[in-house]
Amino acid sequence: MSLIEIILISAGLAMDAFGVSIGKGLTMPVGENGRKVTLAFLFGLFQFLMPVIGWLIGRQFIDVISEWDHWIIFGLLGYLGVAMIHEGLSDDDDEDDDKQFLGAWEMIMLSVATSLDAMAVGLTFAFLPINIWEASATIGVITFGISLVGIYLGKFMGRFVGKYADVLGGGVLILIGTKILLQHLGIIG
């Protein structure tokens, strides 16, 4: 997997955190820079940890399912992509959640919730020739940066961008999963 693909996956995975960051940025008072940076840091930290956890789980089963690994990667990334697109297009309104106080526990729970898909991506990494530490660090750093931008731009960008960020991220995951499948089937080089 190339660095460009890892960066694209990182950006796709960061879209959940970006959408939440925009929503939280809408409601966080001016001057709470420490809390804003902490939230972005936690998003990045959990996006770093979850692929490693998924990779460790996947490595336990690599011998058993190595013949079908490309189908598993395609299925997982496809499922995550479709779920992100569905979430981005849904009419659910999380306005009540955004108005709640954002304490340490809430920040951790948001970080875990937005990084579960990264664990599934880490599972797919177990079947690819990839340095998990570099890939996970890239995912974490990009998520931190994108989340920080989302928090600070939240007041200006509104919910429109947050909603469609998931659609874009989901599309990226589907395309990368499709590319990996087509490469393993020998359809593309």
Automatic annotation (TrEMBL):
Keywords: Cell membrane, Ion transport, Manganese, Membrane, Transmembrane, Transmembrane helix, Transport. GO terms for molecular function: manganese ion transmembrane transporter activity. It comes from the Bacteria. It is found in: Cell membrane. The chain crosses the membrane at residues 6-27, 39-58, 70-89, 101-126, 132-153, 165-188. Pfam families: Mntp. Its main location: membrane. It is a multi-pass membrane protein. One of its GO terms (cellular component) is plasma membrane. Belongs to the MntP (TC 9.B.29) family. Probably functions as a manganese efflux pump. This is Putative manganese efflux pump MntP. It comes from Veillonella tobetsuensis. The lineage of its organism: Bacteria, Bacillati, Bacillota, Negativicutes, Veillonellales.
